[in-house]
Amino acid sequence: MTISNRRSFLKTTTAAGAGLFAAPYIAKAGLSKKSKNGEVNIAFIGVGGRGRGHLKRAASTEGVKVTAFCDIDPEAVEKTQKILSDLGKPEAAVYSDGEHAYLEMLKREDIDGVIISTPWLWHTRMAVATMKAGKYAAVEVSAANTIEECWDLVNTSEETGMPCMILENVNYRRDAMAVMNMVKQGVFGEVVHARCGYRHSLLDVKFNQDLKFGEGAHGEARWRTQHSLTRNADVYPTHGLGPIAAMLDINRGNRFLYLTSTATKAVGLKDYIEEKGGKDHPNAQLPWKQGDIITSVIKTTNGETIIVTHDCNLPRPYSLNFHVAGTDGVTDFDYGHRRIHIEGQSKAHSWDEFQAWQDKYDHPLWKKYGEIANGAGHGGIDYFVTREFINAVKEQRQPVMDVYDAAAWSAVTPLSEASIATGSTPQYFPDFTRGQWIKRKPVEFV
């Protein structure tokens, strides 16, 4: 990419105002390969449970053709072709000859965008290869595992002109979008603090019924558990952090400055294994590294603080721990626990029911597409995240959640790891926008 083109790319990614998201410069390699009938062609790398969900929604969308997918699991391949058949769609080309078969798939001319739903360690390299092949990339969370990988995503997107979207579905949660509307409209006054996290018992995900994980296991136990054994870090920060980042205009007039992280001792997985398999089970003897609860505090350049919690190794119900506090009010909103207080409108020192406020500030996307979305996964939010990627490809624009978001949100993992390892010292976020955050304007989810 020439210097002038790169400047054009950076400039146009900042062009969105408070209204609709403006379409930026996109390298010619992208949608010049549209199908003759006007369809956009979407391919998939990884069609396990998560990938098949995206594929089914994409294949059900008007103007979308699923041309190819890559997965090395024969069962996943069979289930995916059945989805297409049940929808009355033609079978897609399959690439399953080894872990790097996706590279062969990316050579195809009939692919405009690629959705990546694979184990974490593959996310960055697959997204980078997709962009280098001249195709839109959409990558599941987290998008990167190291600071170097975060830069790989940003540098590749800028150099190729191809967008990279992080598929953070919780940004579309109905109550989170209503609170975002309230924040943008000043209901809470000036926001000073927020809280979020991922608090969700994954004990039955990290181990199969026979307490097996790693090679020979099935599902996420094949790869996810290893991170708890080797990394003392918040390895999954974006579900909670993404919506808060959108509320606080991160990368668009504001940015993450630094964080400090602290981890508890690591006893939850050992206790679970001992209860299920006895104290002498070999997995109970492993040196589990990840603290059961990891607490990070982020400071932004505009002065807000954000508490981010990772809590997946202890028994507990699902929670994203949302909280927003400002000069005029405060809200806690989570499944089973939602309340709000707005000074001058709520009874003194009392909480209001959240639902009435959500109804009042319900986001236009939910008003328009709520009935359709409710049939999709995770209470409907999966519908919106798949829809946004497809629309970005169709409209040849940057997605609302762009490569700079993917890098900044994912950077919490390596920075939390470094902070914990050095006695909770502050770790500074790189400025992935190279100063452009100062001029970039807030966007709306459209």
Automatic annotation (TrEMBL):
Cofactor(s) annotated in UniProt: NAD(+)
Gene Ontology molecular function, alphabetical: hydrolase activity, acting on glycosyl bonds; nucleotide binding
Record-linked Gene3D superfamilies: Dihydrodipicolinate Reductase, domain 2, NAD(P)-binding Rossmann-like Domain
Domain Gfo/Idh/MocA-like oxidoreductase N-terminal per the UniProt entry, residue ranges: 40-165
Entry keywords, A to Z: Glycosidase, Hydrolase, NAD
Any matching Pfam family: GFO_IDH_MocA
Domain annotation Glycosyl hydrolase 109 C-terminal: ranges: 177-353
Highest taxon of the lineage: Bacteria
Family according to the record: Belongs to the Gfo/Idh/MocA family. Glycosyl hydrolase 109 subfamily.
NCBIfam families listed in its UniProt record: TAT_signal_seq
The name this protein goes by in its record: Gfo/Idh/MocA family oxidoreductase
Source organism: Maribellus luteus
Higher taxonomy: Bacteria, Pseudomonadati, Bacteroidota, Bacteroidia, Marinilabiliales
